[in-house]
Specification:
By secondary structure, this protein is mainly α. It has a domain at 55-115. It contains three helices and no strands. The chain starts with a helix and ends with a helix. 0% of the residues are buried.
Length: 115
Amino acid sequence: MADQAKGKGIAPKRASNLADSGQSSRPLLPIRTLSEDKEDSKDYSEVIEVLKQHIKSHKRVIASQSSNIKTLLLSLNTLKASVKDSVSAIKNISSTLASLTNSSNAMATTTGKTS
């Protein structure tokens, strides 16, 4: 006990007891009271509630983004259909021009002129 009074750590008897038992010489954790546990429990409950609110908020954001993605996909499908229609129309115009060119060339041949 004299060593503790001088501030030199654990008393020799205590140190030898720890060495014999295989324990470290670190001090033991303080014993917690029931009221301290209740306070910590309350703190944890508050943290859990905050986390629940964050989760709800993130779920709303995800739902909103999901809705936006669905809208974009519908728009892309509409655009795809429009592009297909445009390509089909261009092919029809090209085919019509080819027909007109052939008709023009046929008429020119019968009249003796070629284009």
